[in-house]
Amino acid sequence: MARSVKKFYTGKVKTEWNRLIQDAYHKLELDTTLYFLKKYLPKKGLILDAGGGPGRYTIDLAKQGYDIILLDLTPANLEFAKKQIKKAKVQNKIKGVIEGSITDLSKFPNNTFDAVICLGGPLSHVLDKKKRDKAIFELIRVAKKGAPVAVSVIGRLAVLARAVKIFPEEIGLPHFKKYRDTGDYPGQFGFTASHFFLPEELKNLFAKKKVKILAMAGLEGIGSNLQEKVNQLAKNKKRWSAWLETHYKFCTHPAIIGISKHQLIICKKL
């Protein structure tokens, strides 16, 4: 699994770097995540960006004054991130750029970080159920008592809806039935190996740990899988402002979390 994911993202570094800013629709994931991070992160401190890819959140949070350690599975992501960190002139806030997996954070002692983030779906790329649970344990373990832990994953219902829209010919094939019924996607059909989450599944995984769940949100919200329409709406400032107000009003609704392409959970370590 790790080799497959690493190979996939090695060839997608620039794509992943640009993914969250390519248009208004994708920027909803970035902006909604940052909205909730602003609400729950401490005012200052050391943050672990686990599975942080080419460093989009690392650099944004460094600009806000946080100290950051970036960890990712893919060396190509980390090399690209180093260049972007230098370009953004935030080298003094970056305390490490480290190759590693979210399933094994043993290089960090217990209670190291003032906050831990794992955003964009790294947990979705851990197919083994026991390793997913281990990853969550590790993300919580390295956080200080009282620290927030923020994780976003890829939502199963949004993937099913996308199949209707984009890949109807795949509906009914064995791999479709597999991710429909279990959430597990083998990775041979245009995307890397992934586990797609139902919101109750994500919630239950964290509820069993020593944390208090602070918030859950659907990052694309009501507009999930409506990329073309959302981007058209963004061209009209008045309508876009009203839509963003609507988006934030309902993005924490259980139904909206369920249909969103990316689902965010934020917890506090007890």
UniProtKB/TrEMBL annotation:
Ranges in coiled-coil conformation: none
Q: Specify the superkingdom.
A: Bacteria
SUPFAM superfamilies for this protein: S-adenosyl-L-methionine-dependent methyltransferases
All copies of the Methyltransferase domain together span: 47-146
Q: Which Pfam families match?
A: Methyltransf_25
Span-the-membrane segments of this chain are none
Name of this chain's protein:
Methyltransferase domain-containing protein
